From TrEMBL:
Pfam families: EIIA-man. The keyword Manganese does not apply. PANTHER family: PTS PERMEASE-RELATED-RELATED, PTS SYSTEM MANNOSE-SPECIFIC EIIAB COMPONENT-RELATED. One of its GO terms (biological process) is phosphoenolpyruvate-dependent sugar phosphotransferase system. It comes from Faecalicoccus pleomorphus. It comes from the Bacteria. GO terms for cellular component: membrane. Residues 1-128 form the PTS EIIA type-4 domain. GO terms for molecular function: transferase activity. Keywords: Transferase. This is PTS EIIA type-4 domain-containing protein.
Length: 147
C-alpha cells in the first residue's frame, strides 16, 4: 500500500484531511498532510516533506499539491529529484476534495502507485461539474414558443 501526502499553502491540506475524515471516518495512517503557513522556513518545510517521503521508502508515495508552480509543488519537485531513484514518488497538482476522498478510499484496496495516480487524475476531473450544463442535459428541451 502506498502513502498519500497532501501539501498546500496555508491550512487547505488540513481542511481537506479533516473534511475527508468527516465524510469517511478515521483515515488510514498512510495518509498525512503538511500545511505551509505564511512565513514558514522553506528549508524546514522541505525537511518535513522529505521525512514523509522517506517513511514511504518501501511503498511509494502519491503527493497531491494545491497549485502548479506554488511553493508546496516546487518543494515536492525538489524532493522528487533528490529521492526518485530510490523511492517511487508521483506528484499531482490541483488537488480537490473529490480527488482526496476517492484516493483515500482506494488506498484501502492496496493498489499500485500507478493505479492510485490514475484514480487521482480521473476523480479530480470528474469532481469538476458545470451544474448548468448538467441541468440542461437532463431536463427536457423547451420548444421555442414556450420561452
Amino acid at each position: 500500500m502506498c502513502r498519500l501526502l497532501l501539501l498546500s499553502h496555508s491550512e487547505l491540506s488540513k481542511s481537506f484531511y479533516q473534511t475527508m475524515e468527516l465524510i469517511m471516518g478515521k483515515p488510514s495512517p498512510k495518509i498525512s498532510y503538511l500545511t505551509l503557513p505564511y512565513g514558514q522556513d522553506m528549508d524546514m518545510y522541505q525537511q518535513m516533506v522529505e521525512e514523509q517521503v522517506l517513511e514511504s521508502e518501501d511503498e511509494g508515495i502519491l503527493i497531491l499539491t494545491d497549485l502548479f508552480g506554488g511553493s508546496p509543488f516546487m518543494i515536492s519537485t525538489r524532493v522528487y529529484e533528490k529521492y526518485c531513484k530510490k523511492i517511487s514518488i508521483e506528484i499531482i497538482c490541483g488537488m480537490n476534495l473529490s480527488m482526496v476522498v476517492e484516493v483515500a478510499s482506494a488506498l484501502k484496496q492496496n493498489l499500485s502507485l500507478d493505479v492510485m495516480k490514475q484514480i487521482a487524475l480521473d476523480s479530480g476531473h470528474k469532481g469538476i461539474i458545470d451544474f448548468s450544463e448538467l441541468l440542461s442535459n437532463t431536463l427536457p428541451k423547451r420548444k421555442e414558443n414556450e420561452k
